[in-house]
Design brief:
The complex is a heterodimer of chains A (about 325) and B (about 280).
Chain A (H helix, E strand, L loop, with lengths): L1 H31 L4 H9 L7 H15 L5 H13 L14 H36 L4 H13 L4 H15 L19 H37 L3 H8 L4 H38 L5 H10 L3 H29 L1 H5 L1
Helix pairs in contact in A: 1-12, 2-3, 5-8, 5-10, 5-12, 6-8, 7-8, 7-10, 8-10, 9-10, 10-11, 10-12, 11-12
Chain B lengths: L1 H10 L1 H18 L35 H37 L1 H16 L2 H12 L5 H9 L4 H15 L2 H8 L4 H37 L10 H10 L2 H4 L3 H28 L1 H7 L3
Classes of the chains: A mainly alpha (about 325), B mainly alpha (about 280).
Pfam families (chain B): BPD_transp_1
Keywords (chain B): Membrane, Transmembrane, Transmembrane helix, Transport
Subcellular location (chain B): Cell membrane
Chain lengths: ~325, ~280
């Protein structure tokens, strides 16, 4: 137990380091750039309007005050952290005066649910199928499956999502291709709403599953095909241990450890994929919010989405890392 | 080198297919050097012509011959991918070899930085860069930024090999012979990690071109430069699918799939070649 505690403490320290550096970098990128957020926001607001010059001046003063850009950079940095601790990143411009954080928090559950569902499906199904394919290397069906996985896996998220969109939007329109739920249902805990949400999640989730699936399948197959040549597996086979026990406890359990590490390492990438998929299917998550914010020139909202995604992905990696010792007893006793 | 390639083609069907697919795309991309007009010009041919003997891939709604447009797009994207891969290989080699050979607190420090880079979700960061740089974000800047994020996985891989090399006899000989650390890393250890560098090169190209496509499709890069992503961006912004100009979408998508599957097969087969156990199994030994 002591070993586990130390392991968790070390990981927690790492989590803090990642979050701190990531958020600091986000701050630096946005604040060291030559483009002033005040001027770009002002440019957008005054683009198609007839404000008096005095009004523009006072808007400039108000925006400067709001972004706090008149202070030295180091003060801005500390102010940024002080406000961030309270979850305040200033009001959003595209939904003024809603706080940017509130918009992010509204979008976050959608992304988390989409991500969680697709990761669980891809990770478990991909690994189990991969293990079976590695163990039964002459199975025709699993071989064909490997070829398909190899063909789909390298294609970028966007292209797969787009192909699904074209197929189910133009060629065979049976599934909703846009939004998080139908317009005619009221959000809440009722059957119509939940059904609509699930129905709308099918396409985005399956595009993520299609892309993510292959890498687990191929990785697990390669791992298992090496493990089955190990002496302890041959020994278990000779000793007459049941095939199912061999696959489950001897092969998959040992191969799952590096796969779990791989899961922690790919989470950032999968998150990026989710962001893109959401944009394609107009899903009301962080991805669509980020794209809207960039297109609307919303400085606070872009900063808020980036900050929250850095923190959320680091947190998810931390959780996956904590699962690691449960599978691998060597980490516990370390 | 030649014998390695011959073995790969002979025993590894994935490698043969990968070489064919990528070679096809490279020849197609190289054709852009013979383009009859500047591919950045618009309204040079009749818009919206379906594929025909005159326009092999048809023309798009911006009055460009899609064959030459796409050829240029693939050239730019492949050059972009190679740039990112070369730059990030240099970083990962420097970090991986140093970290593995020097060890101690240098190793711990570098690996901490490595873990931080692995954990940062790259896409929001790239969007952030676009947001602050806007039109200053040309493909070179983007390549540089992506190279700064594309090294950590491979650095770890290289480090694991370098860790083993450190205790080998020849390293000790080199140290006693008075070779300096940079010299040992470059002349003694580098050849051992070159196979990893080659196989991750392909994987890295896949990653960077894929991200570029994604950014460009959303309009978050320099949309006036023809790349794979910007071709799709313009097709979307002219609602090509709805208007019925299907070739503007279908042909680029097919070519993208060819390029990605080809690169992936190359990466996978090289990866397998590095592992002697699976290589022997394939050769039937």
């Amino acid at each position: 137990m002591q070993g586990y505690f130390w392991f968790a403490a070390k990981r927690a320290a790492q989590l803090l380091a990642v979050v701190f550096c990531g958020i600091s970098a986000t701050f630096m990128v946005t604040h060291l750039s030559p483009i002033s957020p005040v001027e770009s926001a002002l440019g957008r607001m005054t683009a198609r309007s007839n404000f008096a010059p005095e009004a523009v001046e006072s808007m400039r003063a108000a925006l400067t005050e709001m972004y706090g850009v008149n202070e030295p950079l180091i003060n801005q940095y500390f102010n940024f952290w002080a406000r961030l601790v309270h979850g305040d990143l200033g009001p959003s411009l595209i939904a003024f005066p809603t706080p940017a954080m509130e918009l992010v928090m509204r979008a976050l559950p959608w992304t988390v649910c989409l991500l969680l569902t697709s990761i669980l499906i891809t990770f478990f199904v991909g690994n189990v199928m991969g293990a079976l394919a590695g163990y039964n290397q002459n199975n025709r069906f699993l071989k064909a499956f490997g070829v398909v996985a190899m063909g789909i896996q390298p294609i970028p998220y966007y292209i797969v999502a787009f192909i699904l969109l074209v197929v189910f939007g133009f060629i065979w329109p049976v599934l909703p291709i846009s939004g998080g739920f139908a317009m005619n249902v009221t959000p809440g805990w009722n059957l119509a709403y939940i059904g609509s949400v699930l129905q709308h999640a099918i396409l985005p989730a399956s595009s993520l599953v299609l892309v993510g699936f292959g890498s687990w399948f191929l990785g697990m197959r390669a791992l298992v095909s090496n493990i089955v040549t190990e002496d302890y597996v041959t020994y278990a086979e000779l000793a007459g241990v049941k095939r199912r026990t061999i696959v489950g406890s001897y092969v998959i359990r040992n191969a799952a450890v590096p796969q779990l590490t791989a899961l922690a390492m790919t989470l950032g990438g999968v998150f990026s994929g989710t962001v893109i998929t959401e944009q394609v299917f107009n899903y009301p998550g962080l991805g669509s919010l980020l794209v809207d914010a960039v297109n609307g020139g919303d400085f606070s909202l872009v900063l808020a989405v980036s900050t929250v995604s850095v923190a959320a992905v680091a947190m998810a990696i931390f959780i996956v890392d904590l699962l690691h010792p449960l599978l691998d007893p060597r980490v516990r006793t370390d | 080198m030649f014998a390695v390639l011959r073995d790969l083609v002979r025993y590894n069907i994935e490698f043969a297919i990968g070489v064919t697919l990528v070679g096809f795309i490279l020849i197609f991309a190289a054709a852009s050097y013979f383009a009859p007009t500047d591919p950045n010009l618009i309204y040079v041919v009749i818009p919206d012509q379906p594929p025909s003997a005159q326009y092999w891939f048809g023309t798009n709604s911006r009055g460009q011959d899609l064959f030459w447009q796409l050829s240029t797009a693939f050239r730019n994207s492949v050059i972009f991918g190679v740039t990112v891969a070369v730059l990030s290989r240099i970083i990962s080699l420097a970090v991986g070899l140093t970290s593995g050979y020097v060890g101690g607190w240098v190793d711990r420090g570098l690996m901490l930085v490595n873990d931080i880079f692995v954990a940062v979700p790259i896409f929001p960061v790239l969007v952030l860069f676009y947001f602050v740089l806007r039109s200053d974000l040309n493909s070179w800047t983007l390549a540089l930024i992506m190279a700064c994020f594309g090294w950590p996985f491979d650095a770890r891989l290289i480090r694991s090999v370098a860790l083993g090399l450190r205790h080998r006899e020849f390293t000790r000989h080199a140290v006693f012979a008075g070779m300096s650390t940079p010299k040992i890393l470059l002349q003694e250890h580098l050849p051992y990690v070159m196979p990893i560098v080659f196989s991750t090169f392909m994987a890295n190209m896949l990653w960077s071109i894929g991200l570029e496509v994604t950014l460009a499709v959303l309009g978050f890069t320099n949309i006036n430069q023809a790349t794979i992503g910007t071709v799709l961006y313009w097709a979307n912004s002219h609602s090509a699918m709805v208007v019925g100009v299907w070739w503007w979408i279908l042909i680029p998508v097919i070519f993208i799939v060819i390029l990605f599957v080809g690169l992936f097969l190359l990466a996978v087969s090289l990866n397998e070649y590095i592992d002697p156990r699976s290589r022997l199994r394939r050769m039937g030994a």
